[in-house]
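Structure (tokenized):
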């Protein structure tokens, strides 16, 4: 189950309420604002407090949460840092760059691939998309976010290999103890 799927029931409930109260149509599944609000409220933050932490106006946070505005990558990074939540980045990536999100999902689902080349390819594709849009600031920030994600993946992979090594050691110890026990039992007989 993806991070987004885990939040989806709550997000859809909030989005349905927003649609009724504010007369908004669900614009292509734009539930980023609902996810942002759920995370903010779970931390006990008011919109103006988050706005202060992110260095934007409270109106901007409201536009994101209730009106489907997607922040720039720079502001998105600040929001993720303020709320200490990488799941929001995945939802944001799903909304802003669906092709990149699909690649990220395939990778996280256990697809065997060379991590470094996948990250480099994603960075190149993001750069090409952003050059076409002539917005260098977004490209740099997205590259940094993906590089940070790559670093986290490398660290997780290292921990996994370390844990697997410990598991192998435990298996060997178990096997040795079992053999010793069986030998002692055979000697008793």
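Design, position by position:
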């Amino acid at each position: 189950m993806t991070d987004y799927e885990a939040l989806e029931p709550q997000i859809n409930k909030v989005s349905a309420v927003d649609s009724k109260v504010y007369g908004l149509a669900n614009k292509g599944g734009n539930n980023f604002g609902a996810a942002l609000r759920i995370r903010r409220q779970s931390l006990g933050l008011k919109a103006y407090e988050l706005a202060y932490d992110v260095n934007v106006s409270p109106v901007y946070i409201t536009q994101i949460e209730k009106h489907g505005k997607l922040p720039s990558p720079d502001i998105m990074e600040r929001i993720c840092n303020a709320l200490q939540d990488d799941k929001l980045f995945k939802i944001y990536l799903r909304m802003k760059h669906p092709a990149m999100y699909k690649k990220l999902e395939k990778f996280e689902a256990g697809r065997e691939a060379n991590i470094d080349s996948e990250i480099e390819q994603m960075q190149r594709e993001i750069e090409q998309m952003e050059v076409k849009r002539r917005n260098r600031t977004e490209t740099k920030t997205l590259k940094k976010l993906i590089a940070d994600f790559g670093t986290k993946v490398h660290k997780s992979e290292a921990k996994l290999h370390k844990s697997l090594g410990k598991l192998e050691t435990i298996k060997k110890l178990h096997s040795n103890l079992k053999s010793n026990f069986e030998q002692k039992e055979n000697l008793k007989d």
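Reviewer-requested clarification: The chain has two domains: 1-94, 97-189. Residues 17-29 have pLDDT under 50 and may be disordered.
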